Amino acid sequence: MAVTLRKIQNYAEYIPLRIILFFILLLPVSFAQKIGDKLASFFYYFIPYRKKHVIKELTLSFPEKSQKDIQTIAKNVYKTFFGMIVDVVFFSKMPDEKIKNMMTYDKTIIANAFAKGRGVVLMPAHMGSWEWTALSFSKDYPINITVTKQKNELFDKMLNESRMNKGYTNIYKIYKTPMMFRDCLNALKLNQSVSILSDQDAGRNGMFVPFFGRPASMPRGAALLALKAQCPIISVFGIRQKDGHMNMEIHDIPLPNTGNKEEDIRIINTTYSHQLEDVVRRHPEQWFWFHRKWKTQQMVRG
Q1: Secondary structure of the chain in HEC code, one letter for each residue
Q2: How far is CA 133 from CA 91, 168, 261, in A?
Q3: Geometric angle at alpha carbon 224, from 146 and 297, rounded to 5°
Q4: Phi, then psi, of 217 in degrees rounded to 5
Q5: Which residues make Cβ contacts (< 8 Å) with residue 183, sequence separation at least 6?
Q6: Model pTM?
Q7: Would strands 207-211 and 214-218 be described as parallel, antiparallel, or unpaired?
Q8: CB 81, CB 40: distance < 8 Å
Q9: In this predicted structure, what is the pLDDT of residue 174?
């Protein structure tokens, strides 16, 4: 009975979504983006999902900014998120060449990393249009992205088929099993890249590193994978430009060898955290502040 109700609920959520997407895709991209901006403002003022949380964390992270500036950044955080949604919706309509040309980046670090033949671990973040960053990267290099299975199986299938059809390979995050780690290692052995979003709160099993002057729990997975494979590890941050294009900032993260695995993971995670903080300080409106980045730290402290 419970399974039947779950299926009914899945279709009740999925069918209206497909109808909405059908009509949105009839619009020009530029017009859809304008609608996205309007919806962002509407949600900011009338359906303020985690608005208080976003403003609180921005205030703590940027004490030098006025409340007016904080509120402007918060409003633009909503616009960035809705812009990312529009990007994802229109993936299926965009030819590969256009997708590739929408992202610019210095390929030297990437090329040198792949030249070592051991694969590459990518550490992106929820910056700008993170889906766009991975999609554009896939036009130059093979990429496997770790994804979380959505509760709605129909939506999960639609989203992940869209990704795979445009060049991704999905690796599901299956917790408490070695399958995800094994699949990631296999991809690295083929000299492919594995992308692991690493900027979310990782709970009590994460590692606390400084972020905006406060300890934040960070996932160990990307660092542990790179150390196991002894492959290059690179942070990648996609920054949306005013003209709609994306610029991907790429930073090498040296692979430490202190003889202590926990210390090596700490060094990698701290380096990544510093790199992420630097780019967020320059583009605060483009990071996904809806995340409860300091949730575990606040629980431990409380």
Answers
A1: CHHHHHHHHHHHHHHHHHHHHHHHCCCCHHHHHHHHHHHHHHHHHHCCCCHHHHHHHHHHHCCCCCHHHHHHHHHHHHHHHHHHHHHHHCHHHCCHHHHHHCEECCCHHHHHHHCCCCCEEEEECCECCHHHHHHHHCCCCCEEEEECCCCCHHHHHHHHHHHHHCCEEEEECCCCCCHHHHHHHHHHHCCCEEECCCCCCCHHHCEEEEECCEEEEECCHHHHHHHHHCCCEEEEEEEECCCCCEEEEEEEECCCCCCCHHHHHHHHHHHHHHHHHHHHHHCHHHECCCCCCCHHHHHHHC
A2: 12, 11, 30
A3: 85
A4: -75, 125
A5: 144, 171
A6: 0.89
A7: antiparallel
A8: yes
A9: 54
Structure confidence at residue 294 (pLDDT): 95
Q: Which two tokens stand for residue 52?
A: 């208080």
Residue 23's pLDDT band (boundaries 50, 70, 90)? confident
pLDDT digit string (tens) for 184-242? 999 999 999 999 999 999 998 899 999 999 999 999 999 999 999 999 999 999 998 88
Residue 262, both tokens: 């926990």
Measured in degrees and rounded to the nearest 5, phi and psi for residue 104 equal -115, 140
Please report where in the chains the tokens 């030297």 appear, as a residue: 108
pLDDT (tens digit per residue) in 232-265? 999 999 998 888 788 999 999 999 999 999 999 9
The amino acid that residue 124 corresponds to is: P
pLDDT given at position 249:
93
